[in-house]
Amino acid sequence: MRPTPPSTHHLLRIDSSSRVTGSYSRKLGDQFEHAWIKRFPAGTITRRDVALQSLPHIENTTIAGMFTPPEQHSSEMVAALVQSDTLIAELKAADTLLLTVPMYNFGVPSALKAWIDQITRIGHTFSFDGSNFGGLLKGKKAHVVIAYGAGGYAHGASFAAANFVEPYLKFLLAFLGFNEVITYNDEATNTNPAGIAASHAMITAQMETSLKGVTA
Ligand SMILES: Cc1cc2nc3c(=O)[nH]c(=O)nc-3n(C[C@H](O)[C@H](O)[C@H](O)COP(=O)(O)O)c2cc1C
């Protein structure tokens, strides 16, 4: 009998809620992680917490470095790009991305935006040939858990126009080349606490279903 080849499945989990206890996005992230590791017992998980360990915002030298050919980088540019290099390498090493995201003021937390600004980089995660953009993160899947304090954010619902989290992350990840972006929406965590158990049961079932289709 031939030995089973090692699994190439690699999950990168990024948490972004400032709440360390009582966070619904983190709780659902844990549930996803458990389901994922059950599905891929030999898989690897890398975790990054951008709320607990803040990332630097991109600065003048970071941007200059991003748009300067590497052979012309100054030592300051090299230093300013170290964080971006590290985060992009981490992202490229994974085949699956899990983002856990609370809605803050209708958008993503600034901690997550700092990560996005570091990883969205021309020539590394997207290309531009003078007329068209292309995503460079191919063959990857993203699972995005979003917790909202209020309800009505679903497509076509009363508060949909105020949802700058789900459409934004779906667009951004597709722009970067992700083949598939699956979102799990946990609404009304503040306005309808009695509905949380039912919402979580539904999301857990959605997670199981979306992982079923993945080949080992
Ligand atoms: C600073 C801040 C801003 C928030 N802004 C919104 C908002 O714009 N819309 C909303 O529905 N809920 C808002 N909420 C509620 C959170 O989205 C909700 O509590 C969610 O469960 C947070 O995710 P977590 O449970 O993972 O921490 C806000 C909460 C905080 C702390």
Please describe what this structure looks like.
It is a single chain. The chain is of the alpha/beta class and 216 residues long. The protein has helices at 24-39, 60-66, 75-93, 110-119, 166-175, 196-212; strands at residues 10-15, 44-49, 96-102, 126-128, 133-135, 141-147, 180-186. α1 (24-39) packs parallel to α6 and α2 crosses α3. 37% of the residues lie in helices and 18% in strands. It has a single domain (10-212), classed as Rossmann fold. Bound molecules: flavin mononucleotide.
Which SSEs are present, and which pair or pack?
Elements: E1 10-15, H1 24-39, E2 44-49, H2 60-66, H3 75-93, E3 96-102, H4 110-119, E4 126-128, E5 133-135, E6 141-147, H5 166-175, E7 180-186, H6 196-212
Parallel strand pairs: 1-2, 1-3, 3-6, 6-7
Antiparallel strand pairs: 4-5
Bound molecules: flavin mononucleotide (FMN).
Residues 17, 19, 23-26, 102-106, 147-150, 189-190 line the site of flavin mononucleotide (FMN).
